[in-house]
Design a protein that fits this description.
The chain is built from seven helices and six strands; from the N terminus they run βααβαβαααβαββ. With 242 residues, the protein is α/β, with parallel strands linked by helices. A six-stranded mixed sheet has the order 3-2-4-1-5-6, sandwiched between helices. The longest helix is centred in the middle third of the chain and has 23 residues. The chain is globular and about 50 Å long.
Length: 242
């Protein structure tokens, strides 16, 4: 199966003002966020990306556009299933005020029980986001082969919930996961399990993600050619580590 790079959008004006932006329209990257988007785009420039899929919100589309500039002919596709959680009546409010709401403690300790007032449940957010990533991953694999690499640009809580699913963790543990702005989190899905390759990566090189072909195999039908399939596609973990 392919490898997906989950990129959180760069810093937005809401991040610095302490407001829960949610799905508020028109929230864009601030100057630091634009620099972060350019930096993560530069890190991804060496990779042969097969697709870029983004949340429809402006801050994600700006980040996806910065990434696409390094990949001629690749235009970001939009998928609403990657959008921010529907925080309902919490949208646009100060985080400091929301922390006084009794629901805040439930969000922190038992998020699987949370449905935001006039909004979305956190379980619903996780389900539609995981479905989106797995659907796009299968489509990229069918079109570009098992060694393909693609990018999904989304939001902090959304990416954390995808990571929790990949690790086989209950949603109630997802607040232990940190996903910073403009970070790259990398997952490879295989037939029987996902592998979390990197989490919240904000600075290391990414070129090593390009799949390496297996050693040439001799025998009928191969004629000494490489299969082109990366060893990482195996569902088996390496005992003792790679």
């Amino acid at each position: 199966m392919p490898t997906v790079i989950l990129v959180r959008h760069g810093r937005s004006s809401a991040n610095t003002s302490g407001v829960l932006a949610g799905r508020t329209p028109g929230v864009k990257l601030d100057e630091t966020g634009l620099q972060q988007a350019a930096a993560v785009a530069e890190r991804l420039a060496a990779l042969p990306l097969a697709a870029i899929v983004t949340s429809p919100l402006d801050r994600c589309k700006q980040t996806a556009t910065a990434i696409a500039k390094h990949h001629d002919g690749l235009r970001p596709a939009t998928d609403r299933r990657l959008t921010e959680c529907g925080y309902g009546d919490w949208t646009g409010k100060k985080i400091s005020d929301l922390a006084k709401d009794p629901l805040w403690a439930v969000v922190q300790q038992h998020p699987s029980a949370v449905t935001f007032p006039n909004g979305e449940s956190m379980r619903g957010m996780q389900q539609r986001a995981v479905d989106a990533v797995r659907t796009h991953d299968a489509a990229v694999g069918a079109s570009h082969g098992p060694g393909a690499i693609w990018v999904a640009v989304s939001h902090g809580d959304v990416i954390k919930s995808i990571v929790a699913d990949a690790l086989g963790q209950h949603l109630d543990t997802f607040q232990r996961i940190v996903v910073d702005t403009a970070s790259a989190t990398i997952i490879t899905y295989t037939p029987t399990r996902p592998f979390l390759v990197r989490l919240n990566d904000t600075g290391s090189e990414l070129a090593s993600l390009v799949p390496k072909p297996e050693a040439p195999k001799k025998g009928r039908g191969t004629k000494g050619r490489s299969t082109g399939k990366s060893a990482v596609q195996s569902s088996d973990a390496v005992v003792g580590g790679r």
